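In the current project phase, we have settled on a layout for protein records. One protein thus recorded is set out beneath this paragraph:
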Amino acid sequence: ADITNHRAGVALVELCWDTGSLVELAPILDELCRTTVEPDRLRHYLLQRSKVAMELGEATNARMTLARAVDLDPVDVAARKQLGDLLFDNQEWERARPLLEGSLEDEDLLPEDVRVELHYRVARCAQEMGDASEAARHANIALALAPTAVIGGLVVALQPPNEYDDRKRDCFDGCQGGSTWYREPGGRRRPA
């Protein structure tokens, strides 16, 4: 396909939208992202291009295209959370934190495991930024939501050892490898 043929590129992307075969269309998506003027359509192409970038292992490109998409529609919760997750994974705590906190605005509509993960990520960002009180608050919320699961031992890292209770100590013992562990009925631990 000719990447300079805008109409053909639009048609190809529209046809392949749901097939998952957008990796081959990366150059066409790049061209469409560069030349599309209509904000809604551009945002849609940027979101697709970020998915392709993630599939190709281009984390920087994925973050850049998602950031452009979020700039076009700042209230798109899914795009903001996805960008926050990418920034978190890249340890860009200051940029990730407000995006992840924004994802918690309607947290009662989210599944519990997503809520726990979001509170953990916000707590980690706060901890890395030196905001111990907010880190502890979000870690405690994560623990209250899922009392037998701690992600990466974060809660333990936020509180001095003399304040551990048995539940936190058990979870921490299982989290040494950075995995999430759950205590099954009968006391046996298993990775999530």
Notes: Strands lie at 149-151, 180-183, 189-191. Residues 154-192 have pLDDT under 50 and may be disordered. The two ends are 44 Å apart (CA to CA). The first strand starts at residue 149 and ends at 151.
